[in-house]
Design goal:
Length: 438
Amino acid sequence: MTPIPSIDQGPRPAAPADDGERGAPERFDGSFTQQEPIPEDAIARAVDLMRTGRLHRYNTGPDETSEAVLLEQEFAAATGARYALAVTSGGHALSIALRAVGVGHGDRVLTNGFTLAPVPGAIASVGGEPVLVEITDDLVIDLGDLAAKARASGARVLMLSHMRGHLADMHALTALCRDLDLTLIEDCAHTMGAAWGGTPSGRFGQIGCFSTQTYKHINSGEGGLIITDDAEAMARMTVLSGSYMLYARHEAGPPPETFDGIRLETPNCSGRMDNLRAAILRPQLARLDAQRDRWNALYGRVAGALGSCPEIVLPNRPRAETYVGSSIQFRLPALAAPAIERMIARCSARGVDLKWFGPADPVAFTSRHVSWTFVPPQSLPATDAILAQLIDMRLPLTFSVDDCNQIARIIIDEVRRASGDTETALTEKMKQAEGVPA
Ligand SMILES: *Cc1c(COP(=O)(O)O)cnc(C)c1O
């Protein structure tokens, strides 16, 4: 039998290939990064469009409405927003939103201490300085710390990241923003199709920003969408997105006279969405609610199984929250870092890809605030303690419910084994301690 390493031995590169007493452990064969194909109707539309050659959003024939405009109109209708704008990425959406509400060089912007790197990146891109706010065990912004940091920093803008699809109490949060006179911009990269109390995410702030990058909820490779009811902000973002003097063709935007005082003073920061991407997104947007239900069936299955394991702690999902379970997060409070690292290596050897927010060096998409050395260093003890235990796993729609059962079995098996290792090592240490004369 392969010896089980004690917690003092540090990380192991891979799990033992075979384990005599346990028999060959079951292995999952699916891919955690494999998305579904683009729907056939979307492919057909894209092929038709390529035959015309008119891929640029302003390259329309007489009486033709571009795919980009149609997507904007449909997204505005789906979210109930007055205006919508399609751009090249979620990150570009965030940076032009900040610029449109007046964030400039040296301005402080509040944001979650737990988010993805393009969020502090967007703040840095306009010369702003991120002020990082603690999160709670449920992975949402801590409202007490938000109020304290807003007062202490003098920041006028909150860029709220609904990181990994977890929504804060949006009624309490918007009331707090009103009290603190904070302009709210929502980063909805993981909440397209989500809602709080029935109101779509992205509709609580002055501006809502979305991503259509491959790993989000609709897939155009890269892409972003912005919604707002604010005519002036949308006029600025339209020019910022690179509208040249063709802003009147933004039929999902404000009327042309809104641009009068804006069109010449606002820089063109080219970031338009093209018709090809818009064409493949429109049929996906139409299916978003059905996709959410499919994601939540997978999420429910994994969460139900993991929730039965006492070592695993899942974040609460409040009743008011309609979420899209495209990924799942859980904490392992009883395990020390080496045991977590070993558990992840063993899961990986059994085909289950887990991400961890604990390691010193960022891996792939997973990074935390201490790695963003372009941001002034900040002390976030609560967030750091949570991230040290936090595991993250994607749930692509190519998985079946049976796949989810198997994945959950493997995780529980390895978490139990890692906890057993920890207990064994602790008992050994205690025995050793007892044996040493005082
Ligand atoms: C993906 C993501 C973004 C940025 O989206 P891109 O389209 O990749 O620029 C912003 N915030 C969060 C939380 C994300 O996950």
